Automatic annotation (TrEMBL):
<feature type="domain" description="Glycosyltransferase 2-like">
    <location>
        <begin position="35"/>
        <end position="242"/>
    </location>
</feature>
<dbReference type="InterPro" id="IPR029044">
    <property type="entry name" value="Nucleotide-diphossugar_trans"/>
</dbReference>
<dbReference type="GO" id="GO:0016757">
    <property type="term" value="F:glycosyltransferase activity"/>
</dbReference>
<keyword id="KW-0472">Membrane</keyword>
<feature type="transmembrane region" description="Helical">
    <location>
        <begin position="266"/>
        <end position="290"/>
    </location>
</feature>
<keyword id="KW-0812">Transmembrane</keyword>
<keyword id="KW-0328">Glycosyltransferase</keyword>
<dbReference type="Pfam" id="PF13632">
    <property type="entry name" value="Glyco_trans_2_3"/>
</dbReference>
<keyword id="KW-1133">Transmembrane helix</keyword>
<dbReference type="InterPro" id="IPR001173">
    <property type="entry name" value="Glyco_trans_2-like"/>
</dbReference>
<protein>
    <recommendedName>
        <fullName>Glycosyltransferase 2-like domain-containing protein</fullName>
    </recommendedName>
</protein>
<feature type="transmembrane region" description="Helical">
    <location>
        <begin position="204"/>
        <end position="227"/>
    </location>
</feature>
<feature type="transmembrane region" description="Helical">
    <location>
        <begin position="234"/>
        <end position="260"/>
    </location>
</feature>
<keyword id="KW-0808">Transferase</keyword>
Length: 311
């Protein structure tokens, strides 16, 4: 079935809103819906795994995302490491604690009843996935992590494209925070406040990281006023801390490359560059605090090799 959008589409949320409006009114009465990006490769067991989760009572589920092109460039390799870390230490960990994993833009499923309770799909920010996660928290609806359902998503090869994409994520997350933090705060006091409190913490992370530079600047300013000797000691401490953190981040990257079944010797550039990739989130978050972006920029895809697991 091909669905036609009758109204202008400026972002993915606009397309989903119009698509779900048609699907929910369809005489076929679909029980649930899976959402993918057009360039995704989907594991052959995806629907089986999702169906199993929904048969057990789950109403919103998130699949495991993996990079389709981890060896194409150091940038795409950094994405592969980043999402592997996110899957293990954010999604799986939260699911084990009875909290919700992140509904990242692709590879998720939602039951018809959730959309009906929400009045359809209603997102207005440029990060519709984060906004929908916020709406689930407000509804007291826990998102389930389905590790056996896998999607492969092609990642950017260009650093410039990566910066544009991640800036949209940062800015969109802050838009969701401005929109939903007051309501989430109110929900903390009721019986479903655990999910709301957890999501408040998630939405505050970009702000905390952006303003984390303030103490560093104050320490440097203190060193300047205290004299050359104190300043040199401060610079040594900051430099040593930065070096240690970078080495630890690179080591985490090496471990995650092994964890996802890749060969470190083929991804050594991504492992070495991973600390730089992570630190570049900081200027993006600082910029997003003062200058919001509401424009979606195209992320070009060139196609990738279909993983053997998906065959």
């Amino acid at each position: 079935m091909i669905l036609i959008c009758s109204y202008p589409v400026k972002c993915k949320g606009d397309a989903l809103r119009q698509a779900f409006a048609q699907l929910l009114n369809s005489p076929k009465h679909y029980d649930a819906f899976c959402v993918f990006d057009a360039d995704n490769i989907v594991d052959s067991q995806f629907l089986t795994q999702m169906n199993r989760a929904f048969c057990s009572g789950v109403r919103v589920a998130k699949a495991r995302d993996e990079a389709l092109n981890p060896r194409t460039s150091w940038v795409s390799g950094c994405y592969a490491i980043y999402f592997a870390l996110f899957n293990l230490f954010f999604n799986r960990a939260r699911d084990s604690c009875g909290l919700s994993p992140g509904v990242r833009g692709t590879g998720f499923a939602v039951h018809r009843s959730v959309l009906l309770e929400n009045g359809g799909w209603h997102t207005v920010t440029i990060t519709e996935d984060i906004e929908f996660s916020s709406q689930c928290a407000l509804m007291g609806e826990r998102v389930c992590w389905v590790d056996g359902a896998i999607t492969w998503d092609e990642q950017p090869n260009s650093f410039r494209t990566s910066m544009n994409q991640r800036r949209r994520w940062c800015s969109g997350s802050m838009q969701v925070a401005a929109l939903h933090l007051p309501d989430l705060r109110k929900r903390v006091s009721d019986g479903n406040g655990r999910l709301s409190f957890d999501f408040i913490c998630y939405l505050l992370v970009p702000y905390i990281q952006a303003f984390s530079v303030v103490p560093v600047l104050l320490v440097l300013l203190h060193g300047i006023f205290m004299g050359k000797v104190v300043l040199i000691h401060i610079l040594w401490l900051l430099g040593g801390g930065f070096l240690f953190t970078s080495l630890l981040t690179a080591a985490a990257g090496w471990f995650m490359v092994l964890f996802i079944g890749e060969e470190p010797s083929l991804m050594w550039r991504s492992i070495v560059a991973f600390p730089f990739f992570m630190i570049t989130w900081l200027p993006l978050q600082i910029i997003s605090v003062f200058q919001k972006t509401t424009v979606w920029k195209e992320v070009r895809h060139n196609g990738g090799v279909i993983p053997e697991k998906a065959a």
